[in-house]
Every structure is written in structure tokens, then in C-alpha cells.
Amino acid sequence: MRMPAPLSLGAMPCRCAKWYERDERVVIQRIRPASFSTVAGLREWIRYFLMPSRLRLDEMGSHVWRRMDGETSLAQIIDAVRTNDCEDLERRVEIFVRALVGQGLAGEGSHRASGEEYSGNCLGQDFDVDPQ
After folding, report:
1. Alpha-carbon distance 6 to 47, whole Å?
2. pTM of the model
3. Cα maximum dimension of the chain
4. How does DSSP classify residue 38?
5. How many CB atoms lie within 10 A of CB 70?
6. Most exposed residue of 4, 81, 85, 131, measured as fewest CB within 10 angstroms of its CB?
7. CB-based contacts of 19: which residues, under 8 Å, 6+ apart?
8. 3-class DSSP state for residue 126?
9. What is the DSSP letter of 60?
10. Whole-angstrom distance between the N-terminal and C-terminal Cα of the chain?
11. What is the per-residue pLDDT for 61?
């Protein structure tokens, strides 16, 4: 997986995947690729089947994910999850969000996605966002 370019602190990440909460932790469901008619599409399908279908985030990741609404900047998210015992928080959160973007689970802009409602499609992909 190629990591996307670094995000500025003014970036406004948005969730672009079906998700739910279990035991106060966020669980993200991977997006099924639309087709594999191209080499890139085939690569996406292979990655989809080889990687776990669900990602259970830790406490910090869950806090970040909940705030990724397309209207809250990366700087505001970092301030909201800041703790005294976390070194290099800014870098860690930025890398986490970049990884989500690289996997197609997040994007940037004024878009919202949740397990219950979704208005728009931040990555131009078709996927089902109905809660389970």
C-alpha cells in the first residue's frame, strides 16, 4: 500500500466506510471494490480478500475516527484526543489518518459517513452503509 501525501493540520478528514461500535471501540468494515476490470481494480480485489474484513480500533483510534466528520480539522481532532502521557501525538494521528485514506476508508472534505447515515460519497466509490 502506498501511503498518501502528508496531511496538513487544516485538513478535514471524513469517514468513508461502514462502521459500528462494540464495547466502546469502533469497528470499521472494509469497502468491497466495485470491479476488477483493470489491473488496479484486480489489485484492490486481491487486497480486499487478503486483509481482514473488519478493523477493530484501539481507544485512541476510536476517538479519532468518531471525530472524522469532514468538518473537524486534523488540528482540532488532535487537540480533542490529546493526553499528557502520549508523546508525538500529532505525528501518530496524522499517520493513522493517512493510512485510513490510503486504504480507502477515509477521505478529506465536507462529507459524513456513519453506520446510520451517509450524505455523499467522499471517494467516488459505491458501497453500502446500512447498519448491521
Report:
1. 23
2. 0.70
3. 49
4. S
5. 20
6. 85
7. 26, 27, 28, 29, 65, 113, 114, 115
8. coil
9. H
10. 28
11. 93
